[in-house]
Amino acid sequence: MLTSMNLLDIFIILIYFGIILWIAQWASKNKSKSKGAVDYFLAGKNSGWIVIGASLFASNIGSEIILGVSGAGARGNMPMANFEIIASLVLIILGWVFVPFYLRTGVFTMPEFLEKRYSVACRNYLSVISILAYVITKISLIIFAGTLVFETIGVSFWTGAIITVVATGFYTVLGGLKAVIYTDMVQAFILLIGTLSVTGFGLYYLGGWDNLLTILTEASSINGNPPREQFFNLWRPMADTEYPWTGMLFGAPILGVWYWCTDQYIVQRVLSSKDENNARKGALFAGYLKLLPVFIFFIPGVIAYALLQEGAIDFSLDNADQALPAMINQFLPTGLKGLAIAGLLAALMSSLSSAFNSSSTLLTIDFYLKYKPKASQKDLVRFGQFATIVLVIVSLGWIPFMKSLMGGGIFHYLQSVQAYISPPIAAVFLFGLFYKWINAKGAIISLWLGFIVGVFRLVTEFLSNEGTIVVAQDSLLGLFIGINFLHFALFLFLFCGSILMLVSKLTTPQPLEKLELVTFKSRNLRPKFIWSTDMTLTVVLIGLVLMLWTLFSPWGIAN
């Protein structure tokens, strides 16, 4: 509550806002006047690997991720942390496979790349779907999570939403992508300090790691509480209704490829790089950073559960997304409370600013410039700023509908919705890079059929959850709705891939000259896996992922 905030905490939060606004002002004053849209939307294509990696991490780690993953920790849903770990492997694919094509073609947006590979129709599809996805899975969700942060300090839901939008929109409009990525770098640092302080003080209060395990063991003896090993096991049986290991190994990477390798929200950061080397190193750096959430988000959730058992904090496990805010509000000492809240706000604002900037880029480059090809650089920037405001208003309107789909928590909602819309896009991008005979007709039919199937699943699940329709579990529709969302992602990916290949084989292939820069058909465009520093970093990263998978398994501490 607001009454529990000390003046020092408030002062620290105000300092944070001051730093962010100063960086935004600096970015706006240092923009190149000659580059116009390139400078505003791609930060002048002059970003180094540290900035890119930090921005990738900070843009991804929004408040919805922090609250969702920590909430999963409090509920004992360890498998959810696999999404973060798998992201490290997918970032390797981004750096080695996708980056060379994106930079060599000189595209501003992912739909623009899809036009170069396939057709204008594919470009238009991805532009529209991406913007819709930002509204229902990014912007509105980030705003919703941000209100939970503000409620920690006693600010009402809608007041928090308005503050979130106005504060973030201000510096995004002011400085464009340059302001976004440089504020991201600072925000990533503040986020790490804030979350590490929560973890450290939580363990200190509990008496260390061994006492944490003891509390979890004792709590497991109470009827209804999860067993201790559930908090530290990434793997569940194939029959598990939430996170089966088959879904995690084969379904989750599909979501990851779409998000990390084809989504404007993320890829725009590597598009701003100085060169291919900095882009790849930035992706690998982000891959290392993505291993941290297991320790700085999930483990604090487990600690919050233990503190709840000890009576040190108060929150409901039915609303476990509140675990971390409750821990911060009721437990952290003066000064650190302000720092931790600043860390959550940093995560919130970095993700939201990224969504604003990528959305405005899509609307400006893929729609406005298409219909006004003679628009000046100044007009492009102004339209991008206006587009941000419109998207914010639409996103605020979606929040009430979003709540009904969030029975499993923020992070579960995010991943499940992505499972319904991402597989067709992932299939078209992946197959298109590796098979030159895949054509535009196959791509557009696959995209639309996949979209129809995915939306049908989303709508029927929504209506069923709301009680609008009653579906028998043993009926065909009931079985369709009952498919685990990760298994559904795998099914939809294979379905779209099959349609893509079948239609392409039955229709006329595209001219080879059109594919010169967008497929592996040319020898000089194939990835050159020469042993280098980047390759060493890649091997080490894969090794760390395998270590984490072993550590948090029945062969590790989950026994």
How would you describe the overall organization of this protein?
With 559 residues, the chain is mostly helical. The chain has one domain: Sodium/glucose cotransporter. Helices cover 73% and strands 0% of the residues. Helix 9 crosses helix 13 and helix 11 packs across helix 15.
Provide the fold topology:
Elements: H1 7-29, H2 37-42, H3 49-60, H4 63-75, H5 82-105, H6 110-117, H7 120-152, H8 157-206, H9 209-220, H10 245-262, H11 264-271, H12 276-289, H13 293-309, H14 323-331, H15 336-371, H16 377-403, H17 410-421, H18 423-434, H19 440-466, H20 476-482, H21 485-506, H22 533-551
Helix pairs in contact: 1-8, 1-15, 3-8, 3-11, 3-12, 3-15, 4-13, 5-10, 5-12, 5-22, 6-7, 7-8, 7-15, 7-16, 7-17, 8-13, 8-15, 8-16, 9-13, 10-11, 10-18, 10-21, 11-15, 12-22, 13-14, 15-16, 17-19, 17-21, 18-19, 18-21, 19-21
The helix count comes to: 22
Any idea what the radius of gyration is?
23 Å
Number of domains: 1
User: Under the CATH scheme, which architecture would be assigned?
Assistant: Up-down Bundle
The SS-based structural class is: mainly alpha
* Large-scale geometry: globular
Going by CATH, the homologous superfamily would be Sodium/glucose cotransporter
Question: Might you state the CATH topology name?
Answer: Sodium/glucose cotransporter
Q: Regarding CATH, which class?
A: Mainly Alpha
Number of beta-strand segments: 0
Q: Helicity range of the residues?
A: over 70%
Q: How far is it from the N-terminal to the C-terminal residue, by CA?
A: 39 Å
In N-to-C order, the SSE pattern is HHHHHHHHHHHHHHHHHHHHHH
* Largest sheet geometry: none
Mean pLDDT across all residues, rounded? Answer: 83
Low confidence ranges: none
Which band does the percent of strand residues land in? under 5%
